[in-house]
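Reading is simple: each integer encodes one residue's backbone shape. The lines below illustrate:
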Amino acid sequence: MAEAQSPPQMLAMVLKKPLTALEPKRVPTPQPRAGELLAQVEACAVCRTDLHVIDGELTEPKLPLIPGHEIVGKVLRCESGRFAAGQRVGIPWLGWTCGRCRFCERGEENLCERARFTGYTRDGGYAEFVVADERFCFAIPEAYGDPAVAAPLLCAGLIGYRSLVMAGSPERVRKLGIYGFGAAAHLVAQVARYQGRQIYAFTRPGKTSDWEFAKRLGATWAGGSDEPAPEPLDAAIIFAPVGSLVPPALKAVDKGGRVVCGGIHMSDIPSFPYAWLWGERTICSVANLTRRDAEEFLALAPAAGIKPEVQRFPLTAANEALDRLRTGRLQGAAVLVP
């Protein structure tokens, strides 16, 4: 297939400084350098991490910045031939690693000391076109022919999957608590049910629509995050960026259980009795993702029949989508469609 030509300028939603709305701008279409590809953005999901960047909670963004890191697009140019023109690829949060630091050398590229991140230190997918390091792009499974449905797999799915793996194997963790039932949780719940686990969903107190959503996705139990677990859990994953959820989640897990904090940013964790930690319970965080995570999850998702639920927005409605996420007025994932 012949390589398509990109226009000299493109429409993008641009962050000029934190704590301000994104502005629609005509900017030069980026051009790929050696080892990079150029893709036409077909869809970009909206992630809570985008909020942390825009709200100034992640403090070192490139400015001005085009956010967005759950990108599905069609390749226009890839000189190495790793991907063919017209091929659909996914572009996630982890955009580049050095390959030489102590973390990269021991296979922990998600902790790379010089890593670059899509939509944070590299321009992302709230735009008509995007450039990405081809080594950190992934072929989208054919089962996901709708790019808007595929987009949440690139972060909500990948970080959710890494969190689930860190929680423990299906043989060890049969009863799994999930705190915060947004984009990542609704995908993790589907994977967990496919693996034969039981899901206990903890959502905003009194928000019955979220309880119904969780039960529709197969949750054994759903209730408010202020409620005790109906029985001891083997592990829990916290997706809501709320540190005060850690103590009750820790109290809810059985001896030997683990609480996984799945967000890149979280408010401070309050003190709690040592007795809630005793019994070899553990707390851990999930930092970024690896290419192996992407390869494993994108192979698993179609096999498990994972179906992201999405709400579509035009690119220029990015601020509305972000506000709905900020105020808890979404089910599933918001997706921008240029």
Summary: The CA atoms of residues 75 and 84 lie 7 Å apart. The mean pLDDT is 96.
